[in-house]
Amino acid sequence: MSVETAMSQETAMSESAVVHESTMLSLRVLARLLDYPSAELQDAAPEMIEIIAEEKRLAPELRGRLMSWCQRLIEADLLDQQAEYVALFDRGKATSLLLFEHVHGESRDRGQAMVDLLAEYEAAGFVLNARELPDYLPLFLEYLSTQSEEQVGRWLGEIRHILALLAARLEEREADHALVPTALLGLIGAENDIHVHRPKVKDEEPDHTAEALDAVWEEEVVRFSAQSDEDCALQSAEGRRLAERKHEVASDPVRIMPAPNATSTAIER
Fold first, then answer.
1. Whole-prediction pTM value?
2. Maximum Cα interatomic distance, the chain, rounded to a whole number of Å
3. Spatial distance between the Cα atoms of 179 and 185, rounded to a whole number of angstroms
4. Which CA distances in Å does 119 have to 37, 81, 113, 123, 156?
5. Helical spans, DSSP H, in the chain
6. Number of Cα atoms under 13 Å in the Cβ half of residue 94
7. Checking phi first, is residue 125 left (phi over 0); if not, alpha (psi -120 to 50) or beta?
8. Tens of pLDDT along 201-253?
9. Other beta carbons less than 10 A from residue 115's beta carbon
Protein backbone atom coordinates (compact mmCIF):
# COMPACT_ATOMS: atom_id res chain seq x y z
CA MET A 1 0.00 0.00 0.00
CA SER A 2 1.43 3.40 -0.98
CA VAL A 3 1.84 6.22 1.50
CA GLU A 4 -0.68 8.29 -0.50
CA THR A 5 -3.28 5.50 -0.34
CA ALA A 6 -2.74 4.99 3.38
CA MET A 7 -3.08 8.70 4.04
CA SER A 8 -6.23 8.87 1.89
CA GLN A 9 -7.85 5.99 3.81
CA GLU A 10 -6.85 7.52 7.14
CA THR A 11 -8.36 10.86 6.11
CA ALA A 12 -11.60 9.16 5.02
CA MET A 13 -11.83 7.35 8.34
CA SER A 14 -11.17 10.60 10.21
CA GLU A 15 -13.90 12.44 8.28
CA SER A 16 -16.30 9.57 8.92
CA ALA A 17 -15.58 9.77 12.64
CA VAL A 18 -16.22 13.52 12.63
CA VAL A 19 -19.55 13.08 10.83
CA HIS A 20 -20.56 10.31 13.25
CA GLU A 21 -19.69 12.47 16.25
CA SER A 22 -21.74 15.33 14.82
CA THR A 23 -24.78 13.09 14.46
CA MET A 24 -24.40 11.74 17.98
CA LEU A 25 -24.26 15.26 19.41
CA SER A 26 -27.33 16.20 17.35
CA LEU A 27 -29.28 13.29 18.81
CA ARG A 28 -28.41 14.45 22.31
CA VAL A 29 -29.53 17.97 21.51
CA LEU A 30 -32.85 16.68 20.16
CA ALA A 31 -33.27 14.64 23.33
CA ARG A 32 -32.67 17.72 25.49
CA LEU A 33 -35.20 19.75 23.51
CA LEU A 34 -37.87 17.32 24.70
CA ASP A 35 -36.88 17.77 28.36
CA TYR A 36 -38.95 19.68 30.89
CA PRO A 37 -37.78 23.32 30.59
CA SER A 38 -35.23 24.33 33.20
CA ALA A 39 -32.62 27.00 33.86
CA GLU A 40 -29.96 24.43 32.92
CA LEU A 41 -31.63 23.91 29.54
CA GLN A 42 -31.68 27.65 28.95
CA ASP A 43 -27.98 27.86 29.82
CA ALA A 44 -27.18 25.05 27.36
CA ALA A 45 -29.19 26.58 24.50
CA PRO A 46 -26.28 28.55 22.92
CA GLU A 47 -24.20 25.36 22.74
CA MET A 48 -27.17 23.49 21.30
CA ILE A 49 -27.52 26.15 18.60
CA GLU A 50 -23.91 25.64 17.55
CA ILE A 51 -24.30 21.85 17.40
CA ILE A 52 -27.46 22.10 15.28
CA ALA A 53 -25.69 24.51 12.94
CA GLU A 54 -23.08 21.80 12.26
CA GLU A 55 -25.65 19.08 11.45
CA LYS A 56 -25.43 19.16 7.66
CA ARG A 57 -27.79 16.21 7.24
CA LEU A 58 -30.71 18.45 8.08
CA ALA A 59 -32.11 20.88 5.55
CA PRO A 60 -31.02 24.50 6.16
CA GLU A 61 -34.63 25.58 6.73
CA LEU A 62 -35.14 22.93 9.42
CA ARG A 63 -31.84 23.78 11.07
CA GLY A 64 -32.89 27.42 11.12
CA ARG A 65 -36.20 26.60 12.80
CA LEU A 66 -34.47 24.45 15.42
CA MET A 67 -31.97 27.19 16.19
CA SER A 68 -34.76 29.78 16.44
CA TRP A 69 -36.54 27.52 18.91
CA CYS A 70 -33.38 27.27 21.01
CA GLN A 71 -33.15 31.07 20.99
CA ARG A 72 -36.75 31.29 22.20
CA LEU A 73 -35.86 28.93 25.05
CA ILE A 74 -33.30 31.50 26.18
CA GLU A 75 -35.57 34.52 25.88
CA ALA A 76 -38.99 33.20 27.00
CA ASP A 77 -40.13 33.18 30.61
CA LEU A 78 -39.22 29.86 32.20
CA LEU A 79 -42.48 29.48 34.11
CA ASP A 80 -44.48 30.04 30.93
CA GLN A 81 -42.41 27.39 29.14
CA GLN A 82 -42.96 24.92 31.95
CA ALA A 83 -46.71 25.51 31.92
CA GLU A 84 -46.83 24.97 28.16
CA TYR A 85 -44.81 21.76 28.50
CA VAL A 86 -47.19 20.35 31.13
CA ALA A 87 -50.21 21.21 28.98
CA LEU A 88 -48.60 19.55 25.97
CA PHE A 89 -47.21 16.33 27.41
CA ASP A 90 -48.87 15.71 30.77
CA ARG A 91 -52.50 16.03 29.70
CA GLY A 92 -53.72 13.34 27.36
CA LYS A 93 -51.79 10.62 25.55
CA ALA A 94 -51.91 11.73 21.91
CA THR A 95 -48.60 13.56 22.26
CA SER A 96 -47.02 11.07 24.67
CA LEU A 97 -43.23 10.81 24.57
CA LEU A 98 -43.53 7.13 25.42
CA LEU A 99 -43.02 5.38 22.08
CA PHE A 100 -44.94 2.20 22.81
CA GLU A 101 -47.94 4.21 24.03
CA HIS A 102 -48.64 4.90 20.35
CA VAL A 103 -48.31 1.22 19.38
CA HIS A 104 -49.67 -0.76 22.32
CA GLY A 105 -51.68 1.72 24.38
CA GLU A 106 -52.27 0.14 27.76
CA SER A 107 -52.22 -3.46 26.53
CA ARG A 108 -49.97 -6.01 28.22
CA ASP A 109 -47.86 -6.17 25.05
CA ARG A 110 -46.44 -2.79 25.96
CA GLY A 111 -44.81 -4.31 29.01
CA GLN A 112 -43.16 -7.03 26.95
CA ALA A 113 -42.01 -4.51 24.37
CA MET A 114 -40.35 -2.46 27.12
CA VAL A 115 -38.68 -5.57 28.51
CA ASP A 116 -37.29 -6.30 25.04
CA LEU A 117 -36.06 -2.72 24.65
CA LEU A 118 -34.47 -2.78 28.09
CA ALA A 119 -32.65 -5.96 27.07
CA GLU A 120 -31.33 -4.09 24.01
CA TYR A 121 -30.01 -1.37 26.29
CA GLU A 122 -28.33 -3.83 28.62
CA ALA A 123 -26.77 -5.81 25.76
CA ALA A 124 -25.24 -2.57 24.49
CA GLY A 125 -23.94 -1.66 27.95
CA PHE A 126 -26.39 1.24 28.22
CA VAL A 127 -27.37 1.44 31.89
CA LEU A 128 -30.40 3.47 32.92
CA ASN A 129 -29.77 5.84 35.81
CA ALA A 130 -33.01 7.81 35.58
CA ARG A 131 -36.54 7.03 36.65
CA GLU A 132 -37.87 6.83 33.13
CA LEU A 133 -39.48 4.00 31.20
CA PRO A 134 -37.26 2.47 28.50
CA ASP A 135 -39.46 3.77 25.67
CA TYR A 136 -39.27 7.42 26.79
CA LEU A 137 -38.19 9.18 23.58
CA PRO A 138 -35.45 11.43 25.06
CA LEU A 139 -33.95 8.40 26.79
CA PHE A 140 -34.17 6.38 23.58
CA LEU A 141 -32.32 9.15 21.73
CA GLU A 142 -29.58 9.07 24.36
CA TYR A 143 -29.24 5.37 23.66
CA LEU A 144 -29.07 5.94 19.91
CA SER A 145 -26.32 8.52 20.46
CA THR A 146 -24.11 5.67 21.70
CA GLN A 147 -24.74 3.45 18.66
CA SER A 148 -23.29 3.20 15.16
CA GLU A 149 -24.85 5.14 12.32
CA GLU A 150 -26.12 1.89 10.86
CA GLN A 151 -28.00 1.09 14.07
CA VAL A 152 -29.30 4.65 14.36
CA GLY A 153 -30.66 4.43 10.82
CA ARG A 154 -32.28 1.06 11.42
CA TRP A 155 -33.92 2.11 14.69
CA LEU A 156 -35.23 5.38 13.28
CA GLY A 157 -36.57 3.39 10.36
CA GLU A 158 -38.39 1.07 12.76
CA ILE A 159 -40.16 3.91 14.59
CA ARG A 160 -40.64 6.26 11.65
CA HIS A 161 -44.42 5.75 11.68
CA ILE A 162 -44.56 6.72 15.37
CA LEU A 163 -42.35 9.77 14.77
CA ALA A 164 -44.51 10.89 11.84
CA LEU A 165 -47.72 10.56 13.85
CA LEU A 166 -46.20 12.39 16.82
CA ALA A 167 -44.92 15.17 14.56
CA ALA A 168 -48.37 15.61 12.99
CA ARG A 169 -50.07 15.77 16.39
CA LEU A 170 -47.56 18.27 17.76
CA GLU A 171 -47.93 20.37 14.62
CA GLU A 172 -51.70 20.39 15.18
CA ARG A 173 -51.02 21.79 18.65
CA GLU A 174 -48.68 24.38 17.08
CA ALA A 175 -45.84 23.20 19.30
CA ASP A 176 -42.17 23.79 18.55
CA HIS A 177 -41.58 20.26 19.83
CA ALA A 178 -42.85 18.94 16.49
CA LEU A 179 -39.42 19.88 15.15
CA VAL A 180 -37.78 17.02 17.05
CA PRO A 181 -39.57 14.08 15.37
CA THR A 182 -39.42 16.04 12.10
CA ALA A 183 -35.64 16.32 12.45
CA LEU A 184 -35.32 12.63 13.30
CA LEU A 185 -37.25 11.77 10.15
CA GLY A 186 -35.06 14.23 8.28
CA LEU A 187 -31.96 12.29 9.31
CA ILE A 188 -33.24 9.33 7.29
CA GLY A 189 -34.88 11.33 4.52
CA ALA A 190 -38.43 10.49 5.62
CA GLU A 191 -39.93 13.92 6.36
CA ASN A 192 -42.73 13.29 3.87
CA ASP A 193 -44.08 10.53 6.12
CA ILE A 194 -45.75 13.26 8.17
CA HIS A 195 -48.07 14.20 5.28
CA VAL A 196 -49.89 10.87 5.54
CA HIS A 197 -50.95 11.54 9.14
CA ARG A 198 -51.98 15.20 8.94
CA PRO A 199 -55.55 14.65 7.58
CA LYS A 200 -56.25 11.93 10.16
CA VAL A 201 -54.88 14.01 13.01
CA LYS A 202 -57.15 16.93 12.09
CA ASP A 203 -60.15 14.65 12.58
CA GLU A 204 -59.01 13.25 15.93
CA GLU A 205 -60.96 14.14 19.04
CA PRO A 206 -58.69 16.08 21.41
CA ASP A 207 -57.74 14.10 24.49
CA HIS A 208 -56.26 16.99 26.50
CA THR A 209 -59.49 18.89 27.20
CA ALA A 210 -61.14 18.88 30.63
CA GLU A 211 -63.94 16.66 29.29
CA ALA A 212 -61.52 14.18 27.79
CA LEU A 213 -59.44 14.02 30.96
CA ASP A 214 -62.56 13.37 33.04
CA ALA A 215 -63.46 10.49 30.72
CA VAL A 216 -60.17 8.79 31.50
CA TRP A 217 -61.59 7.82 34.87
CA GLU A 218 -64.37 5.88 33.15
CA GLU A 219 -62.27 2.91 32.09
CA GLU A 220 -63.81 -0.06 30.31
CA VAL A 221 -64.08 -3.35 32.13
CA VAL A 222 -61.39 -5.79 31.00
CA ARG A 223 -62.94 -8.90 29.40
CA PHE A 224 -61.24 -12.28 29.64
CA SER A 225 -63.48 -13.98 27.11
CA ALA A 226 -62.25 -15.97 24.13
CA GLN A 227 -63.05 -13.01 21.96
CA SER A 228 -60.90 -10.64 23.98
CA ASP A 229 -58.07 -13.18 24.03
CA GLU A 230 -58.25 -13.31 20.25
CA ASP A 231 -58.15 -9.52 20.15
CA CYS A 232 -55.10 -9.55 22.41
CA ALA A 233 -53.41 -12.07 20.14
CA LEU A 234 -53.98 -9.81 17.16
CA GLN A 235 -52.66 -6.82 19.08
CA SER A 236 -49.68 -8.86 20.19
CA ALA A 237 -48.80 -9.81 16.63
CA GLU A 238 -48.83 -6.15 15.65
CA GLY A 239 -47.35 -4.99 18.92
CA ARG A 240 -44.27 -7.18 18.67
CA ARG A 241 -43.46 -5.81 15.24
CA LEU A 242 -40.65 -3.60 16.43
CA ALA A 243 -39.03 -6.30 18.53
CA GLU A 244 -39.26 -8.92 15.78
CA ARG A 245 -38.27 -6.80 12.78
CA LYS A 246 -34.99 -5.66 14.28
CA HIS A 247 -33.78 -9.27 14.02
CA GLU A 248 -34.66 -9.53 10.34
CA VAL A 249 -32.25 -8.82 7.50
CA ALA A 250 -33.72 -5.83 5.71
CA SER A 251 -33.38 -5.86 1.95
CA ASP A 252 -33.23 -2.07 1.85
CA PRO A 253 -32.01 -0.85 5.25
CA VAL A 254 -32.70 2.74 6.24
CA ARG A 255 -29.54 4.80 6.43
CA ILE A 256 -28.65 8.16 7.89
CA MET A 257 -28.63 10.79 5.16
CA PRO A 258 -25.17 11.80 3.85
CA ALA A 259 -23.78 15.06 5.14
CA PRO A 260 -22.37 17.24 2.33
CA ASN A 261 -19.24 19.16 3.29
CA ALA A 262 -19.53 18.11 6.91
CA THR A 263 -17.19 19.95 9.23
CA SER A 264 -15.94 19.25 12.71
CA THR A 265 -17.44 20.78 15.82
CA ALA A 266 -15.31 21.53 18.84
CA ILE A 267 -18.27 21.42 21.18
CA GLU A 268 -18.46 18.43 23.46
CA ARG A 269 -21.11 17.39 25.83
1. 0.74
2. 74
3. 10
4. 30, 35, 10, 6, 18
5. 3-33, 39-53, 60-75, 78-89, 101-104, 108-123, 137-144, 149-158, 160-172, 179-187, 193-202, 210-215, 226-239, 241-245
6. 23
7. left
8. 888 876 554 444 444 445 544 444 334 443 443 333 333 444 444 444 343 55
9. 11
